[in-house]
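Re: folding output
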Amino acid sequence: MLEWVISIDITAGIAVLFVAYLVYVVCDWVLYKQVVAGGPADRFVLITGCDSGFGRCVACRLDGAGCYVIATCLTQEGTTALQDTCSSRLTVIQMDVTDEDSVQQAFSVVSELLHPHKGE
């Protein structure tokens, strides 16, 4: 019976690793084949939640691909860490998505960064 449980655990672990690999491959394909198709020049991308995790990863990858990235972070620590990691094409804004004033301030910064018709 114990072998049966161990076998199920191993199978579940392999399935989780396989799904994680598929997510990585799909994200890589979307980032480099779809988002940056035709070159990253003059492309602006706004990403929220860049303190850590997927948001931070995507911001760094798109910055590395040559896109202009506007990244929002909740904390000052996340803001500083992201600025230290990425190029000058990346603009970091500290924003709390649950605070309307914070969102309005971020909107003002983004509006100033984008030239007319750049965000269309």
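--- second protein (sequence, then structure) ---
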Amino acid sequence: MLLVKIFFGDLGDREAILGHISRRREEAEALRKQIRAFQRDAERGGDHDLYPWLTRRHALAWAQFTVRWAAEAEEAIRASRGS
């Protein structure tokens, strides 16, 4: 739903859209911290199973991308002279 709101952003409230993006960034930051903690715990416990590791890598990559994308989107919206 977030991307639909952004796609039609010209029809909506700029601050509301920024709020949605900010919340998504915060959620991704929290997920990133959680996944890193899971990874540290797994490494300390000697867990080197491939499939859980691949799952953690995917979640971490998604979270990192989302944090970067949200920061870029927030900056672009704030810099725009639109509504």
